[in-house]
C-alpha cells in the first residue's frame, strides 16, 4: 500500500513515527508493506514514488536540502504525479468551509485513491456528498480518527454490529471540556482559572472556542449521526451550548444532589444537541480528566458504552493506521 500523508502536525508526525516503529510487525502479522510516497507540509512536500525515508524526514532539521523535497505544497496540483493508493488527510479542521481538507479528499477520490482522514471539517459539512462521490468512483473514505481518538467506534459498528440498528448516541466527545469540568469539580475553581491551567498544560489551544463552545463536539456528533444513525445532517443542524457560563457554585449544587455536570453530545429521536447536562456520580459518564465516553443504544445488542483516550498524537495515529491497514487488506 502506497500512501501520501497530507499535513505535518502532531498526528501526522506521530503516524510517521509509528510507521517506522511498526513496519516489520505490520509486514509479519498482516503481510502488508506500507510505503509513504508523499508527505505534504505547508511550504512544500517530500515526494518519492519509490518510498520516502521517514526516519530521515522526522529527524531532518534542514529538510529543504533533502533530495526528495519539492517547493510545491498543494496536493491538488501534483496528485497526478503520485503513484499512490491512499491519501491520508490530516490537515486542521475547518468547520466553516471544510478546506483545505475538502479539496484534498475530492482530488484523491477523483484520482482513484482511497482516503483515510482525521479531519472533521469536510465530513461535518459535506458527509453525504463525499460518500456519494466515493461510491461513484468506487473508492472508500475511512474516518475512525475523526471521533474519540483511539476508541474504535466506526470499526466496531461496521465489523461487529452488522445486523444492528443504532437508535441513539450520547457521549463526552471533547477531552478538553471534560478536563476543565473535572478540575472545576475537584478543586472548586472558576472556569477562567482552569482554562488558563489547561492552556499551560497543552490541553487547550490559545483560542479555546472550538472546544469550550462545543464546536468540536458538534462536528463529531454530525459524523456519528450520518455514519451510525444513517441520519443525513450537517453541522448547522446541531443545537450547541458551551461551558463558559458554568460556575463552581452550580457544580457544587449538582454534586450535593449526587450529580456531575458534563458536556454531552446527544442524538436522541433525531435531535442533535451539545450542551452541559447532569449525570449521576458513579455512572459511565462520570469519567474525569481528558477521557471520552460514547454510549450507543442498539436494537439487538442493547446499550454499549466505550471509554478511552479521545485525543493525543499517538492515540489518534493508532486509529489512522488501523484504517490504512483495513484498506490495504481490502485491496489485496
From TrEMBL:
PROSITE patterns in the cross-refs: HOMOSER_DHGENASE (PS01042)
Keywords, alphabetical: Amino-acid biosynthesis, Methionine biosynthesis, NADP, Oxidoreductase, Threonine biosynthesis
Gene3D superfamilies in alphabetical order: Dihydrodipicolinate Reductase, domain 2, NAD(P)-binding Rossmann-like Domain
Binding site for L-homoserine: 205
Homoserine dehydrogenase catalytic domain ranges (all copies): 152-325
GO MF: homoserine dehydrogenase activity; NADP binding
Residues bound to NADPH: 120
Residue stretches making up the Aspartate/homoserine dehydrogenase NAD-binding domain: 7-144
Any one biological process term the GO annotation gives: methionine biosynthetic process
Enzyme class per UniProt: oxidoreductase
Catalytic center residues: 220 (proton donor)
UniProt-listed Pfam families: Homoserine_dh (PF00742), NAD_binding_3 (PF03447)
The protein's annotated pathway: Amino-acid biosynthesis; L-threonine biosynthesis; L-threonine from L-aspartate: step 3/5; Amino-acid biosynthesis; L-methionine biosynthesis via de novo pathway; L-homoserine from L-aspartate: step 3/3
Family: Belongs to the homoserine dehydrogenase family.
Stored PANTHER family: HOMOSERINE DEHYDROGENASE
NCBIfam families linked to this entry: PRK06270.1, PRK06349.1
Protein name: Homoserine dehydrogenase
Lineage: Archaea, Promethearchaeati, Candidatus Odinarchaeota, Candidatus Odinarchaeia, Candidatus Odinarchaeales
Amino acid at each position: 500500500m502506497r500512501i501520501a500523508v497530507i499535513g505535518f502536525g502532531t498526528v501526522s508526525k506521530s503516524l510517521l513515527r509509528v510507521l517506522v516503529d511498526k513496519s516489520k510487525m505490520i509486514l509479519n502479522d498482516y503481510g502488508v508493506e506500507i510505503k509513504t510516497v508523499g508527505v505534504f507540509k505547508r511550504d512544500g512536500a517530500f515526494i518519492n514514488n519509490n518510498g520516502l525515508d521517514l526516519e530521515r524526514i522526522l529527524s531532518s532539521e534542514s529538510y529543504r536540502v533533502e533530495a526528495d523535497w519539492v517547493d510545491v505544497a498543494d496536493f491538488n496540483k501534483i496528485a497526478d504525479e503520485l503513484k499512490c493508493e491512499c491519501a491520508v488527510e490530516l490537515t486542521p479542521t475547518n468547520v466553516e468551509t471544510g478546506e483545505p481538507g475538502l479539496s484534498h479528499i475530492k482530488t484523491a477520490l477523483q484520482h482513484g485513491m482511497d482516503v483515510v482522514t482525521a479531519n472533521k471539517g469536510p465530513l461535518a459539512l459535506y458527509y453525504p456528498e463525499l460518500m456519494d462521490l466515493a461510491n461513484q468512483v468506487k473508492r472508500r473514505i475511512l474516518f475512525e480518527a475523526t471521533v474519540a481518538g483511539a476508541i474504535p467506534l466506526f470499526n466496531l459498528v461496521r465489523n461487529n454490529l452488522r445486523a444492528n440498528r443504532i437508535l441513539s448516541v450520547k457521549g463526552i466527545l471533547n477531552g478538553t471540556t471534560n478536563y476543565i469540568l473535572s478540575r472545576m469539580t475537584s478543586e472548586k475553581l472558576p472556569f477562567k482559572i482552569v482554562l488558563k491551567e489547561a492552556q499551560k498544560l497543552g490541553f487547550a489551544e490559545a483560542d479555546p472556542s472550538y472546544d469550550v463552545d462545543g464546536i468540536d463536539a458538534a462536528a463529531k456528533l454530525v459524523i456519528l449521526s450520518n455514519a451510525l444513525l444513517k441520519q443525513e445532517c450537517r453541522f448547522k443542524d446541531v443545537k450547541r451550548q458551551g461551558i463558559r457560563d458554568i460556575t463552581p457554585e452550580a457544580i457544587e449544587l449538582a454534586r450535593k444532589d449526587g450529580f456531575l455536570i458534563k458536556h454531552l453530545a446527544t442524538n436522541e429521536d433525531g435531535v442533535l444537541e451539545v450542551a452541559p447536562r447532569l449525570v449521576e456520580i458513579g455512572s459511565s459518564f462520570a469519567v474525569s480528566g481528558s477521557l471520552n465516553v460514547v454510549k450507543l443504544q442498539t436494537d439487538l445488542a442493547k446499550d454499549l458504552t466505550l471509554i478511552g483516550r479521545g485525543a493525543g498524537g499517538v492515540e489518534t495515529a493508532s486509529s489512522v493506521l488501523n484504517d490504512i491497514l483495513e484498506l490495504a487488506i481490502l485491496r489485496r
